[in-house]
From TrEMBL:
<feature type="cross-link" description="5-imidazolinone (Ala-Gly)">
    <location>
        <begin position="141"/>
        <end position="143"/>
    </location>
</feature>
<dbReference type="InterPro" id="IPR024083">
    <property type="entry name" value="Fumarase/histidase_N"/>
</dbReference>
<keyword id="KW-0963">Cytoplasm</keyword>
<dbReference type="InterPro" id="IPR022313">
    <property type="entry name" value="Phe/His_NH3-lyase_AS"/>
</dbReference>
<dbReference type="InterPro" id="IPR001106">
    <property type="entry name" value="Aromatic_Lyase"/>
</dbReference>
<keyword id="KW-0456">Lyase</keyword>
<protein>
    <recommendedName>
        <fullName>Histidine ammonia-lyase</fullName>
        <ecNumber>4.3.1.3</ecNumber>
    </recommendedName>
</protein>
<dbReference type="GO" id="GO:0004397">
    <property type="term" value="F:histidine ammonia-lyase activity"/>
</dbReference>
<comment type="pathway">
    <text>Amino-acid degradation; L-histidine degradation into L-glutamate; N-formimidoyl-L-glutamate from L-histidine: step 1/3.</text>
</comment>
<dbReference type="InterPro" id="IPR008948">
    <property type="entry name" value="L-Aspartase-like"/>
</dbReference>
<feature type="modified residue" description="2,3-didehydroalanine (Ser)">
    <location>
        <position position="142"/>
    </location>
</feature>
<dbReference type="GO" id="GO:0006548">
    <property type="term" value="P:L-histidine catabolic process"/>
</dbReference>
<keyword id="KW-0369">Histidine metabolism</keyword>
<dbReference type="GO" id="GO:0005737">
    <property type="term" value="C:cytoplasm"/>
</dbReference>
<dbReference type="Pfam" id="PF00221">
    <property type="entry name" value="Lyase_aromatic"/>
</dbReference>
<dbReference type="InterPro" id="IPR005921">
    <property type="entry name" value="HutH"/>
</dbReference>
<comment type="similarity">
    <text>Belongs to the PAL/histidase family.</text>
</comment>
Amino acid sequence: MIVLTGKSLTLDDVGRIVFQNEQVVLCDRQREKLKQNREIVEEMLQDKKVMYGINTGFGKLSDHRISDEDLEALQLNLIHSHACGVGEPFDEKISKTMVLLRANALAQGYSGVRVELVQSLINLVNANICPVIPQQGSLGASGDLAPLSHLALVVMGEGEVFYQGKRMPSMDALQGNGLTPLILKAKEGLALINGTQAMTATGVVAYLEMEKLLHQGELTACMTMEGLRGIREALDADLHRVRGHQEQIDVAKRMRHSLQDSKLISSQGEFRVQDAYSLRCIPQVLGASWQTLHYAKEKLTTEMNAVTDNPLIFSEDWKVISGGNFHGQPIAFTMDFLKLGIAELANIAERRIERLVNPQLNDLPAFLSPNPGLESGAMIMQYSAAALVSENKTLAHPASVDSIPSSANQEDHVSMGTIAARHALAMLQNTRRVIAIELICAMQAVEYRGVEKMATSTREFYNKARKVVASIRKDRVFSTDIERLTAWLKESDASQVMNQIGEVENV
């Protein structure tokens, strides 16, 4: 059971809640703070105090005063008019993460909402009811308005959800779990949609997937080193110590552990003095990719526990302040930076694929084919990897440098952070396919060298992967192999991968 305080949610917590269905409960102290904060809103309404989005219109319409009898209609109209998302829906895991993060943000007690609203979001999380939320339509400032409006529809018993493997009307899933839709009171519609939870949720899932893929990429690179008889000295601890980057040092340490009993890697001067950069510089390149991930962890953790609503109600001082905490610039920059780390994981892997299949660069059968000439073997797998890497380069263009004014130029600078996060996730899927292709080629290469000579860690990884994709005995439709292995990499348990690659000290 994870207790939501609004301030203490971790990436590990999100992983347990979203991927392992751990239950969530609202902190008692925050429950009381929410009640106090809501009382302030009610008293200010009674005093006829003008408050943005509570008894005024929105955006450029903020100068329009709303009568007391229309306050509930104002919130309903807000959600209906702003539910303009288009395109394919977000993955259920991202949708569930959005609900969790919105509940966590509101739980801090600065948004003027009722306890019942936060509890309704927690109920959705615990019942694994995931709103159907279109991916496109957010500018990443004024909050993720369009995506979060589709989330808000479900709270009201409208819209659609994913539940128990099916897409259905939200009321069907709510009633099936004994849940009642809410009628949104003053401020609550705005509180639901004024935030960065679409981009942050997408970023969190991207982080969790990239962390696992980096470990898988390291282990696959170790197998490639065995297939190409890479030089062990490139992983020497002293070499990396004097460079000083901790992530580089850690990658080299894990790779040394994974290859410690390998009889396939070579020593300096045994076959050649130096390897190509795609083998020799694995710790330097992947270490830098880990740096982008660590930066993302810091910023995502902050944003997961941030108050990103507008306006904010400070109960102690009876203040209602309109600001811009909904602006997604920190996450936009974070996701654009993360995209560089993803791109380079794929770039260097594709270069190793080329070294595995190119007969001019190794002493293996041409294109790893059992019958070169008559059969093409892995030739076109490298083409696919190159295409995926090239596509990543276009997706890596920073979304955060773009801005288009909206709301009659009232909202004249926006972050495009949700686009950046979505592109990061698309790049991860491309990169996972590149790693799958490298793994297919590396497994074929070590078979030519002798599987019995592999290191214990890489041989265990080889044995598991061989249950998914068979050895290449003749040409076949390799697309099926690539997709099957890609799915296996995505579904593999992260802790097993990390244990296998050697999360050890003193190596």
